[in-house]
Amino acid sequence: MSDRNEIPSALSLSSLNPRIARFNHPGNDEENQKRLSDDLESALSHEKNELLPNETRGEEVAPKSSFTSGLIWMVINTLATIGIVFTNKAIFSDPSLKLAQLTFACFHFLITFLTLFVLSRPALAFFVPRRVALLDILPLSLAMSLNVILPNLSLAFSTITFYQIARILLTPTVALLNYLLYRATLPPRALLALVPACLGVGLVSYYDSLPPPTTTTTTTTTSSTSPKTTTPLGILFALTGTAASSLYTVWIGAYHRRLKLSSMQLLFNQAPVSAVLLLYAIPFIDTWPAAWSGVGAGRWALIGLSGGFAGLINISQFFIVAQAGPVSSTVVGHVKTCAIVALGWAVSGRGVGEWGSLGGVVVAVGGIIAYSVIMLQERGKQTLGKAPGQPVGEKGK
């Protein structure tokens, strides 16, 4: 079969099912990956969008929803995403749990699988589960594990502000991967917008790793909430996590085309395999608390809350898909980024007067917002047929 020998671009694949990569597992920046799949879709010619007949596309059917209910689920999703970042940061601030990352990821994969299992039951019937061969899903499940573990390690060794800003690098990295693998290009204006985004991340990386000005008031009040600086390990995990997330984002579309599964069906197969893979590695890699009984009730409550947020993210994503178009999805994603960055800054103990890091945040967020606006404009031109026969991006020869 030629499908197994030729993996098409994630960009064209996401156009076969606009919901590809939107329903994602917790711990992952799901809105960002969804936007990447949609934005980069316009970088390929229209004829590649018809690789798959209509009857072979996924069986995922979004529930009909009013505007009000869609808005409510967007709010729930936004609050749950913000909540899970700060909850996980509080969990990782415990030295006894900071290096139990595989165990924590395994727990989240289990929550994801159970959530999907409930949604697939005949009483709800949000999607029809389909099984695939273990060897077919194994590479994607491994990429999924790295996609969660490495960013979580970055969160454990970084400030929340740096962790979130560093995720902006996912956009240019996916663009680079698609160019190297499939010669898919972006509009020149979009590429220019990514330059300040990358520069801003660099500024935040540098200034956030410097010791903050010593003050008598902030040091004592914030030391238990968030580290004052980002460590070199945090930067390393952020960069490797970006690479893993970018590869995973590209592979999602390729595997969707190859296995002919909807995004929910694909994740339903990935989650348990990823959990089992981690079970084999946990005894050799994770460092557990000396005694689990020594973990306070507050930490256990946070772990349970993190799982609850994970379930809400998964469920709300499925309802949002009925209402959120490209603009709504983009706005919600930027609201999450700005809210997490602002709240992270507030609890980090850093002052507004630290212009280096603050300037990097503004430049990075401004660049990625400009990129999103440009891509929405280009997609609108294609939709309205203002430039027939002239795709936004052309495949290189």
UniProtKB/TrEMBL annotation:
Record bears the keyword Transmembrane helix: yes
Membrane topology: Multi-pass membrane protein
Keyword Endoplasmic reticulum: yes
Superkingdom of the source species: Eukaryota
Signal peptide segment: none
Membrane-crossing residue ranges in chain numbering: 67-87, 99-120, 132-150, 162-182, 189-207, 233-254, 266-285, 297-319, 331-349, 355-376
Localisation per UniProt entry: Golgi apparatus membrane; Cytoplasmic vesicle membrane; Endoplasmic reticulum membrane
GO CC entries: cytoplasmic vesicle membrane; endoplasmic reticulum membrane; Golgi membrane
Keyword annotations from UniProtKB, A to Z: Cytoplasmic vesicle, Endoplasmic reticulum, Golgi apparatus, Membrane, Sugar transport, Transmembrane, Transmembrane helix, Transport
Principal subcellular localization: Golgi
Listed InterPro entries: TPT_transporter
Subunit structure: Homooligomer.
UniProt function note: Involved in the import of GDP-mannose from the cytoplasm into the Golgi lumen.
Family statement: Belongs to the TPT transporter family. SLC35D subfamily.
Protein name: GDP-mannose transporter
Species of origin: Chaetomium fimeti
Lineage of producing organism: Eukaryota, Fungi, Dikarya, Ascomycota, Pezizomycotina
